[in-house]
Structure formats: C-alpha cells, structure tokens
Design brief:
- By secondary structure, the protein is an alpha/beta fold.
- The chain has two domains: 2-207, Spore Coat Polysaccharide Biosynthesis Protein SpsA, Chain A; 214-304, no CATH class.
- It is 42% helix and 18% strand.
- The protein is built from twelve helices and nine strands.
- It has helices at 12-23, 44-50, 65-75, 95-100, 125-134, 147-150, 166-171, 183-193, 214-230, 232-238, 242-258, 265-283; strands at 2-8, 31-37, 54-57, 80-84, 89-90, 110-118, 140-143, 161-165, 197-207.
- Strands 1, 2, 3, 4, 5, 6, 7, 8 and 9 form a nine-stranded mixed β-sheet that branches.
Length: 305
C-alpha cells in the first residue's frame, strides 16, 4: 500500500495537472491519496476530491511544515509514504514506480528516495540551471559515512517528490515540528544517523521549478540561514554550506557563458550576492530586531508561533 500525501493551499489549475499526473501512473501497488488543505479559498479541495483524494482540512494558522506532514504520515495506511507538493507535475507514467522501487527491495539500507526535478515550462535560465545543478542525471546513494565526501549535500532531499518507509520514519518520530522549513532535510539527517541510506533516483522525474525574483531569492536564503542557525546539529554532523555555494556560482557562470547569455550575467551576479547576503543574515537572525525578521522571510507565519 502506497500513501501519497500532498499539503495544499490554493493550488489552482497547476494542482489539477499534478492530480492528472498521479492518476496516470503505472502502479501495480494500491495507493491512497491524502490531501491536507490549509483552508483554500479556491477549488483546490473540490479538485482533489474529484480525483478520489481524501481531503483533510486544517486551519491555515495551524499549518506546520513538519507537524502537518507528521499528522498525515500517522494517518496514512501505506507502508511507503510518498510526499509531493501541489506544483510538482510527474513527468511520465513510470516515474512513481521508479521512485518507490528501491524501497521495496528486501535487505536494502535505503529508507528514503527522492526524484529528479526538471525545469517547468517557462523556467528562466537561472531557475533551469539551479534544477540541473541540484538534480543531475546520475542516480546516487548516500549514507552517514559519505559526509566527508558530500558534506551537507549528504542530506539533500526534497519533499516535493520523495518517498519514505513509514516504519523507519515513525522510528525517528516522523518530521520535526516548528521548523521554519526543511523538515525533509532534518528527517534525513536523523535517519542517516540511525544507519539508513538515501537514494537519489534520477529516473523518477517531475517538472518543478520557481522563477524567483531577487527579493524572493533573498528571503529563501534568509530562511535557509535561519534553519542552519536553529538546527546547528546539521552543520556539526554533515558540514557547512559555503562550499556548495561556491560550486554553484562556478557552475552558474559556466552555464550562462556556454549559453552566450551575456545580457543576463549582471542579474546572475546580483542574484548570487543576494543569496549570500540573505543566508548570512539568516544565520545571524537573533541579532536582528524581532519586528524585522518576518519581513526578511518567506514564512511570515512561522515567526508568530
């Protein structure tokens, strides 16, 4: 039994495409679809129910990246839990089977898998490159012993398209509550500490990307900095993030030059600077005035908790 879990908030027409991509999957296993809707004001809940989903409504102010997903995981009947987001469209009928197949193998240390995210239609060059940088073409397995080689990348994962063995997730208490975001990364960090392995499945693909503005890039990386400040154990166990930032800058510059995107280079350079500034301010958020912190963040509601 597979449980597919999606938190939603005003998913719109794109969520309809996500639902279509789910029901078109070639799955030999039975599955249930659980949608946890944060009081949408559009037809998100009705769309989900039309595709056979069980919709559980939660108050918007009660949504928590970890807590809501934990609530869903506990309710789920599946032995394997697939987490998605409302804007990740599965690319082909065999993608979901490819994602969960490693979790069905006996005597395998792999307890978590995540798929490859391809640039969505209309993705900017910056957005497309970020997806290709974070989600390469080669499948890769990682464990705690690999932290010296991959550093913080060892625990890289995305609940936009990821699958977990429910029993293993339950053993670590599911997802952590009250995180600004990054519940998936923290869960994988704890799973690897307990002997699990994570597998990046390049053959399991979804279309998912964001054309962030410069302000959104700042806020996104401010929140990453906040996460790394509040969850210091992640960096202590797996290493710092700065090295990956330098690799990204080199890769992005090469991509833009190879594409002869000369006119976009100033934006890229500013974008990299904005990310760096946002991350470092996030790491030091405790020194900022309390009234300022929510204004610098993508997750305003978290600061009210």
């Amino acid at each position: 039994m597979i449980s597919i879990i999606i938190p939603t908030l005003n998913g719109g027409e794109l969520f309809g495409e996500v639902l279509k991509s789910i029901v078109s999957q070639d799955l030999s296993e039975k599955y249930e679809l659980l949608v946890y809707d944060s009081s949408s004001t559009d037809d998100t809940a009705a769309r989900a129910e039309a595709f056979g989903a069980e919709v559980i409504r939660v108050r918007r102010e009660d949504f928590d990246h970890g807590g809501t997903r934990s609530m869903a995981a506990k309710k789920a009947a599946g032995d394997i839990l697939v987490f998605m987001t409302q804007d990740a469209v599965i690319s082909e009928p065999g993608a979901l089977s490819a994602l969960i197949a490693p979790l069905l193998k006996k005597d395998s240390p792999v307890d978590v898998t995540y798929g490859r995210q391809l640039p969505a239609q209309g993705a900017t060059l910056a957005a497309a490159h970020l997806r290709l940088f974070n989600y390469p073409e080669l499948t890769l397995q990682r464990s705690y012993e690999d932290r010296g080689k991959y550093g913080l990348k060892t625990v890289f994962v995305s609940n936009s398209f990821a699958a977990y063995k429910k029993a293993k997730l339950a053993a670590i208490g599911y997802f952590q509550n009250n995180l600004i975001f990054g519940e998936d990364t923290c869960a994988v960090g704890r799973l690897l500490l307990h002997g699990s392995a994570i597998l990046y499945v390049a053959e399991a693909t979804v279309y998912h990307s964001h054309n962030y503005t410069l302000l959104q890039e700042f806020k996104r990386h401010f929140d990453i900095g906040v996460l790394h400040s509040t969850e210091k154990w992640l960096l202590k166990e797996y290493g710092r993030a700065e090295g990956h930032g330098a690799s990204y800058v080199q890769s992005a510059l090469s991509c833009f030059l190879n594409n002869k995107a000369w006119s976009l280079l100033p934006d890229l350079i500013i974008r990299c600077g904005v990310k760096y500034l946002g991350y470092n301010l996030g790491r030091k958020y405790r020194y900022l005035p309390a009234l300022v912190r929510p204004q610098l963040s993508m997750h305003h509601a978290w600061w009210q908790k």
